[in-house]
Target: Thymidylate kinase
Amino acid sequence: MTNSTGRFITFEGGEGVGKSTQIHRLANVLRRRGHDVLVTREPGGSRGAEAVRHVLLSGAAEEFGVRMEAMLFAAARSDHIEEVIRPAVAEGTIVLCDRFMDSSRVYQGVTGNLEPRFIQNLERVAINGMVPDLTLVLDLPAASGLRRAKAREGKNAAPDRFEKEEVSTHEKRREAFIDLTRTEPDRCRLIDANQSEDAVALAILAAVEPVLDDNRTGEPAKGRKA
Ligand SMILES: Nc1ncnc2c1ncn2[C@@H]1O[C@H](COP(=O)(O)OP(=O)(O)O)[C@@H](O)[C@H]1O
Ligand SMILES: Cc1cn([C@H]2C[C@H](O)[C@@H](COP(=O)(O)OP(=O)(O)O)O2)c(=O)[nH]c1=O
Model:
């Protein structure tokens, strides 16, 4: 699916792979080229979703089980889409989102062991048709990502609900993200994040440019250079 005016681009991958660094770099490049860009993240990005974010990342919902957590992620996602993402894309904005539905497929579905049908149904209700035009999966060995995340947060910072899990669990997530790029090659691109920031940024731009130029709808994005 191509969103008819703006574009919806998501960034996925494990902990500390460089998503937020690269989103901001891409946003700067696109703004310099004259696009309207909105940077957002999950869980969060809208007032309702930010209220749920703390419940999830503090671990407060962990004792109630993975189904409960999955439903809270879905509730936050639904609010984020209807309040922020869908209206922005409809106005011609390029929305760059740090994590989205694939994080639920991987973290709650694959490593949370939830039944695929449950995750699929929840996803369908939550996203309500708002499939990303492009998903960039940043790939890095799990241990390197965790090291980067730890360095970013400072030695004494406590890892959050998901960071604290075993390296083997993070490696499973890495494999699951790679699998996604194989099962949905039209939407998902695998980006080698084990390179310099500049090299990763170039690879991302090369994946994004065709999506911006893609004029299947005949409607150029508002604010887009011809
Ligand atoms: N290509 C890279 N090489 C080395 N360090 C990086 C690279 N990209 C990002 N970093 C650093 O790694 C840490 C995690 O990056 P960040 O963008 O916050 O990741 P994420 O949003 O995926 O958790 C940050 O301190 C960032 O400066
Ligand atoms: C959006 C989403 C995130 N998560 C997890 C992944 C991260 O560990 C955490 C988000 O924390 P955040 O601090 O935003 O981490 P990161 O910089 O790694 O993106 O929530 C899920 O488990 N399911 C989801 O659907």
Notes: The pocket of adenosine-5'-diphosphate (ligand 1) is lined by residues 15-21, 148-149, 151-152, 196-197, 200 (CB under 6 Å). DSSP finds eight helices and five strands in the chain.
